[in-house]
Amino acid sequence: MIAAFLGAQSSTDQAAITLDQAIQEAVAKNLDLVAQRLNVSVAEAREITARLRPNPVLTVAGQTLNLLGANYSPDTPLGPNQLNIHTDLPMERGHKREERIALAKELKSLAELGVREAMRQVIFAVQTAFVDIQQAKNNLALAQGNLQSLERLVGINESRLKAGDLAQVELDRSRVAAFQYRVSVQQAQLQLDQARTRLQLLLGRKLRSPGFDAVGELRRDDITGTPEEIGKRALTLRPDYLAGQQAQVRSQADLRLQLANGKVDYSIGAEFTHQRAWGVGGSSVGLYFSMPLPVFNKNQGEILRAKREINQAGAQKEALEASIAAEVEQALRQYTVSRQLLTSVETDILVKAKSVRDITEYSYRLGEASLVEFLDAQRAFNDATQTFNDARASYARSLYLIDTVSGATVSGN
User: Fold this and answer.
1) Fewer CB within 10 Å: C terminus or N terminus of the chain?
2) The predicted structure's pLDDT at residue 375
3) How far apart are CA 385 and CA 181, in angstroms?
4) At what angle do helices 227-237 and 371-406 cross, to 10 degrees?
């Protein structure tokens, strides 16, 4: 899945997209994810640096030069003209270069896992934004349906008022109720616009398209696997947990590097010297060996720091295991509660509320029910449908949450 997402290219910003298309576009263009991927490039640059060897050092010196052009004589207190060309070649010990490269590779692996973790969060955010849009569209349709019902009722009451079959106060009450539902329509439209804007931001679109929409049905499937299997899958696939394991490996590589840095390096040098005075000259070659004496600084502090970081990474890994277990448990609990609520509302409340609303509306038109009774039935139907819309959205979110906490969205399958 992750390979398909990374390879997806969105040539144009579509006006209406499905959830899969939205995820592909977000993985390719989400601004936070684009910035996160640059960490991999930075890590690759550090790996190049780690592979470099120390530069040799060249020293050129001239001594007792006759800057004024005067001739030397045996009585001159200065020595003959001397030219020195000295070269030093540092020799790293303890496999420092190999350990630097190993550490750089581990840092690059951490950066790649950081990208996968950011991708997991982005995908879940897109899925949640998609559910928000569908929920807002359902709420808007509900509000529009309620408004149409009340407007039809107002029209009937106006006709009854003209026929002398209705009091003015009854018409005013129905108009007030219609106005309230008109406000509800505006609020629902605003929530839908805000949800669409949030999704476009996640997709990395800098310009907001007024015709943008996300199309598709809300998820209604069941989860696969037992809670134990989901928990084990999370510890196998979650990038943040894998990053915790990788942090331990990185800390161990860092410790090996610091132990290598504690070993002193040698310098091997060669020098060419040429002297000339009074028409007589000569040249000589010298070899040199130098090394610092490890009396005070043996890199003790960095070695101790690396050891402490290994312990810290282990503690963080244990804490992350407990956190992931809690996330899986909470996600499964949310799934169970959402499923029970959705089933209960759909089978026990929604149909009955609609039936009561329709019967009461018919009775009101015949004059057998009061406006208060109809508005109560309408309010009960609105609340039941709103609860159903919320339950559907909550159930879909719980399914996406389980995929996220288990790492299924970035499993690479």
Assistant:
1) C
2) 84
3) 15
4) 50
